[in-house]
Design brief:
heterodimer, A: 473 residues, 2 domains, disordered C terminus, B: 388 residues, alpha+beta, seven-stranded mixed sheet, three-stranded antiparallel sheet, 15 helices, 14 strands, 18% strand, disordered N terminus
Chain lengths: 473, 388
């Protein structure tokens, strides 16, 4: 199930909210756990067992690690941690990467091992990372394990963040799992965040995505240089709104149930360097790799050479995490190299020059990155790159491109402005002015929310065009 | 910040309370409506059967079909569905979009479907073009060049460009039509693009449907007659009757927005009578028309009653000639006029006709052949290649 679906909004969510808030407090984690299983099983009736298995594995491993560590048996604790890693990464490796490895082996050695055609279980990249963080936190940070398996299950399977993050580290919600106070104010905050997230996904991501899909599939005769740039800008907006919208919905739902999930996006397209971009983009994933890969490898404390090595390892893995294909590895390495270059000298330079130039640089390299990210066929990627940079005999612009631009200009402008803090600043200013009159501000803000929700509803009813990009990962 | 929180905790903010209540009413209200609403079996605007509530079984749950069809069911049966689809499209046009769902919103209340280049440069489009070429070549030898015609008609997107708003663009089907012309030969291909474009200030395509009007079809008929040396019926020979003025066609269904209604007109030739047999004895009539469709959404089916596989027409014009029309629905409205020029006319729709075309032509002593499709359906039809 996904949030931007009528089934979720008008069946699942109201029913779960009803049961959850009727039930006494001590049953609530159980309700959350069980409804999350239904949520997951709706799309993956068999793979839900896989998630339960991963849950059980880390529940047991977590307790063992804690016991061994407290008894001073560090070696045993290490072995248990290793076992958890092997099982989780083994699951991920098999279900996500096995066909990729078979394909690679075949192309290198010329064998013809048959593909297993394993279907990727939804959200596996997210929940395996969460369960691993749990065991690692106990080992590395002396977190206390969760004794109650229902509570632990509620953490792993929690439907708001189950299939596309944010990746919630166990320690951030440990207290809330034990005791939390759901209240009207938090619920209202959650509603606001959820509806705005829904709008980002249904209105902005899907509209910019439609433009990109059209441009991406244009035959040579119709594609132009200008069109390719419009297209990749639309993709940049689509992927941002798709993912940030989903994160907002997750955070909003979490708030309704009394949880505080970490922020995942912080206006990434404002960045003036790649370093800054990834401080603002998919923050929870970056933090995961920093805490569990980069820092354990030595981070920046063991000299420049080691640091460069560590950055490249982290970015190879980050790229590969996004998908079992070469273009994702390429995408990761591309940013790894840029980050190293920035670390070595470019960042100092970028700080000195005019901010506008730094901004243009960052957007440019990020857009190039999105081309790497989007095309898993190297031929298609090559064709698109040569079009963007005026090779391959594509015309500069044509009537079709102009019409596409006219037709989608409003959407692109709204989406572009919406990716900056400007709308929020304006809204805050207006609210400040009328804040003295509480009734007025209550009416104004709620009318906006209802309008956004209703427009989303029109689009959801009208469109079957509703794929979630982040399902592949 | 902290101070703020303390203030808030003293009393619940009205704003937040309203937000929560409004949200619960929205999701709860539509949920209840959606449960209470009676299921609709068939959507006339979409011309399809809507998903019914699936039945639960262990098997259906484990293979995922139950959950996916339930999802489909909620979507299909959602309350106010048609209204919401329309509202979505109004939102789109509010954002200055003039192409929605591959429909161009043009001037003078015209709504024109815009099919992209890909449809015409597909493998199927090529297969169909070559199949038509082979077919025409074969019968050119047997019947003579002047007795075979291929009329592939551009749709409104390449003719009614005068109705486009500034900057509007649609793929020009002429590129594809030119390729067809080259394949079948200039003598056989009937160029309707130029003559239709000359008339594009007139009512030659429906504003809300993907078909041409009877008048548009008649203009193309005259072009064909002139090229083939046949004496075309003049307007004076034709009885023109308006049979509906509240037609909202397939393009209307795509957008569901409020549109100016279309008028359907029927052409019959005065002083010619017919005996018509539909689908090999299934039904006999003395005319081409099915009144019952005028009360339905799909009013264009007034002509020939939809798309019968085979229509066998005998006219009172005893000139000994036999015409075979291989066609899509573009031919339906003008069939009464073509048929009046021949003693026998057979109309075949390949989608619903299973016999061998060659033996049919042979057995029925066909003297003339007309292949009539619109460019869009010709490029995308899976059955055209059967004429090869």
């Amino acid at each position: 199930m996904v949030f931007s679906d009528l089934l979720f909004l008008f069946r699942f969510l109201p029913i779960v909210l009803l049961i959850y808030f009727i039930a006494p407090k001590k049953l609530r984690n159980g309700i959350l756990f069980f409804s999350s299983l239904v949520f997951y099983a709706w799309g993956e009736p068999v793979y839900v067992c896989l998630m339960l298995f991963s849950t059980l594995v880390d529940y047991v491993h977590g307790r063992l690690v804690y016991r061994f560590k407290n008894n001073g048996e560090l070696k045993k604790a290490k072995i248990v941690v290793a076992s958890s890693m092997i099982i989780n990464l083994g699951l991920l490796g098999f279900f996500k990467y096995v066909d990729f490895f078979i394909g690679s082996v075949n192309s290198v050695f010329g064998n013809s091992i048959e593909f297993l055609n394993v279907a990727l279980p939804i959200g596996i990249s997210f929940y395996t990372f969460q369960t691993m963080s749990y065991t690692l936190d106990i080992y590395m940070n002396n977190e206390e394990p969760q004794k109650n398996i229902i509570n632990f299950g509620a953490y792993v399977a929690m439907f708001p963040q189950l299939i596309a993050g944010p990746i919630v580290q166990y320690r951030t919600v440990a207290n809330e799992l034990r005791s939390r106070k759901e209240n009207i104010d938090d619920f209202a905050l959650g509603v606001r965040r959820f509806i705005l997230g829904l709008g980002k996904k249904v209105l902005l991501a899907n509209s910019t995505g439609a433009v990109w899909t059209e441009i991406k599939n244009l035959p040579d005769a119709d594609l132009t240089v200008a069109g390719s740039w419009i297209g990749i800008i639309c993709f940049a907006l689509q992927i941002y709104y798709d993912f940030a919208g989903y994160s907002d919905m997750a955070i909003g739902l979490g708030k309704m149930f009394g949880f505080n999930f970490p922020v995942n996006f912080d206006y990434p397209y404002l960045s003036k360097s790649v370093t800054e971009f990834f401080r603002r983009w998919h923050i929870s994933l970056g933090k995961w790799f920093r805490d569990y890969v980069y820092i354990p490898l030595g981070g920046n404390r063991k000299g420049l050479l080691k640091q460069v090595r560590n950055i490249m390892i982290v970015w190879f893995l980050t790229g590969f995490w996004h998908g079992a294909a070469y273009n994702f590895i390429l995408w990761g390495l591309y940013f790894g190299i840029l980050l190293v270059i920035e670390k070595l000298f470019l960042l100092k330079l970028l700080n000195k020059i005019n901010g506008a130039f730094a901004h243009i640089y960052a957007l440019f390299v990020v857009l190039i990155g999105w081309v790497l990210f989007e095309f898993d066929s190297m031929n298609a990627m090559g064709r698109f790159f040569s079009c963007m940079f005026g090779f391959g005999g594509f015309s500069l612009c044509n009537d079709y491109t102009l019409y596409l631009l006219i037709n989608s200009a409003a959407v692109i402008v709204i989406a572009a402005v919406g990716s900056t803090p400007l709308p929020k600043l304006i809204a805050d200013k207006i609210l400040m002015k009328i804040n003295s009159k509480e009734i007025l501000s209550a009416i104004a803000e709620n009318i906006v929310l209802v309008i956004v929700f209703m427009i989303c509803l029109f689009y959801l009813v009208a469109g079957s065009y509703n794929p979630f990009l982040y399902f592949r990962f | 910040m902290k101070e703020n929180n303390i203030k808030k905790s003293k009393k619940i903010s009205i704003k937040n309370l309203v937000t929560v209540i409004v949200f619960l009413i929205l999701i709860g209200g539509f949920t209840i409506c959606s449960f209470l609403k009676q299921d609709t079996d068939f959507s006339e605007t979409e011309n399809r059967v809507l998903t019914e509530k699936p039945e639960i079984s262990a098997e259906a749950i484990f293979d995922g079909t139950y959950t996916s069809s339930y999802q489909e069911y909620v979507r299909d049966q959602f309350p106010f569905r048609n209204v919401f689809v329309a509202l979505r499209n109004y939102c789109e046009s509010f954002l200055n979009k003039t192409e929605i769902n591959e429909v161009l919103i043009c001037n003078d209340d015209y709504y024109i479907e815009s099919h992209k280049r890909g449809n015409y440069e597909s493998e199927l489009a090529d297969i169909n073009r070559l199949a038509l070429g082979t077919f025409c070549n074969r019968y050119k030898e047997i019947l003579g060049t002047e007795h075979i015609s291929a009329m592939i008609v551009p749709t409104a997107q390449s003719v009614m460009t005068n109705k486009f708003k500034p900057g509007m663009y649609a793929y020009n089907q002429e590129e594809y039509l030119d390729k067809i012309k080259e394949t079948v030969g200039e003598d056989i291909f009937i160029n309707t693009k130029d003559v239709l474009s000359e008339y594009n200030e007139e009512y030659i395509y429906y504003r809300t449907d993907h078909h041409w009007t009877t008048y548009g079809a008649y203009i193309a008929y005259r072009e064909w007659a002139q090229k083939k040396g046949i004496e075309a019926y003049d307007m004076e020979d034709i009885a023109i009757r308006e049979i509906s003025n509240d037609f909202l066609g397939t393009i209307n269904s795509k957008l569901n927005m409020s549109m100016k209604k279309d008028t359907i007109v029927e052409y019959t030739i005065k002083n010619v009578t017919f005996e018509i047999d539909y689908n090999m004895g299934l039904e006999q009539k003395d005319n081409f028309f099915y009144e019952e469709y005028l009360a339905k959404k799909d009013k264009y089916s007034y002509f020939l009653g939809g798309n019968p596989g085979l229509v066998d027409i005998t006219s009172s014009n005893k000139n000994g000639k036999t015409l075979l029309i291989i066609k899509d629905s573009y031919a339906n409205c003008i069939a009464p006029v073509y048929s009046a020029n021949f003693e026998k006319t057979y109309i075949i729709d390949l989608r619903f006709f299973n016999m061998s075309i060659d033996s049919f032509i042979d057995e029925n002593e066909v003297t003339d052949i007309l292949v009539l499709y619109n460019a869009d359906s010709f490029a995308g039809d899976k059955y055209v290649k059967r004429i090869k």
